[in-house]
């Protein structure tokens, strides 16, 4: 099950197996497959607009989802379903809005907790979430999510246009250090793929 932001029509059903691979994304595709097979603890994709970051992240998510659907197995002579995974996909602004709304309306929604505990968390376009000048609310919520996932060795996939120095300035050296220790960080290069048509 995938919770969080809705996956748009353009990305529904994308898979690493059917994604185009070229020189600009070959390394990212290699490490993306390693996230799916749980060989690495995550992937941070940085690069310019249109470089294919979101496509790769959503292909990872949907491949993980496909491989972890509930399965029917026989257990002690009885048919039983083994639990599938709960994966979370959030566009960064949607996550920020959901966390703010959950706190302000005191609802039973729990987006920060869900993001912390998901079997796989994908955050798309980190750095685009809006924070009022002088407010640390979203920064603190994201810190809490990142810390929890790092401490519990839960995989994370992040896309961002921010370079590592800007990520460190915005989210702190500690977060960047933890990502470097648990995830593969890659910069995608190349032309805007959307210009091709």
Description:
- The chain is 40% helix and 20% strand.
- It has helices at residues 26-36, 53-67, 92-104, 111-117, 137-151, 164-171, 173-182, and strands at 2-4, 42-46, 71-75, 78-82, 87-91, 120-126, 156-160, 184-187.
- Helix 1 (26-36) runs parallel beside helix 2, helix 5 packs parallel to helix 7 (173-182) and helix 6 (164-171) crosses helix 7.
- 34% of the residues are buried.
- The chain has one domain (25-190): P-loop containing nucleotide triphosphate hydrolases (Rossmann fold).
- It is globular, with a radius of gyration of 17 Å.
- With 197 residues, it is of the alpha/beta class.
- A six-stranded parallel sheet has the order 1-5-6-7-2-8, sandwiched between helices.
- The chain is built from seven helices and eight strands, in the order E-H-E-H-E-E-E-H-H-E-H-E-H-H-E.
């Amino acid at each position: 099950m995938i919770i969080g932001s809705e996956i748009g029509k353009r990305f529904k059903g994308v898979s690493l197996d059917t994604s185009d691979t070229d020189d600009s994304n070959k390394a990212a595709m290699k490490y993306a497959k390693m996230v799916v097979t749980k060989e690495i603890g995550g992937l941070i994709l940085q690069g310019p607009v249109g470089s294919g970051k979101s496509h790769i992240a959503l292909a990872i998510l949907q491949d993980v989802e496909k491989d972890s659907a509930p399965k029917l197995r026989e257990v002690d002579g009885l048919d039983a379903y083994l639990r599938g995974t709960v994966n979370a996909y959030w566009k960064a602004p949607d996550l920020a809005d959901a966390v703010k709304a959950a706190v302000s309306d005191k609802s039973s929604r729990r987006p920060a907790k869900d993001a912390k505990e998901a079997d796989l968390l994908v955050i798309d376009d980190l750095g685009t979430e809006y924070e009022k000048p002088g407010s640390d609310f979203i920064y603190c919520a994201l810190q809490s999510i990142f810390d929890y996932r790092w401490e519990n060795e839960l995989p994370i996939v992040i896309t961002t246009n921010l370079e590592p120095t800007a990520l460190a300035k915005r989210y702190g050296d500690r977060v960047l250090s933890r990502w470097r220790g648990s995830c593969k960080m890659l910069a995608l290069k190349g032309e805007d793929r959307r210009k091709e048509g």
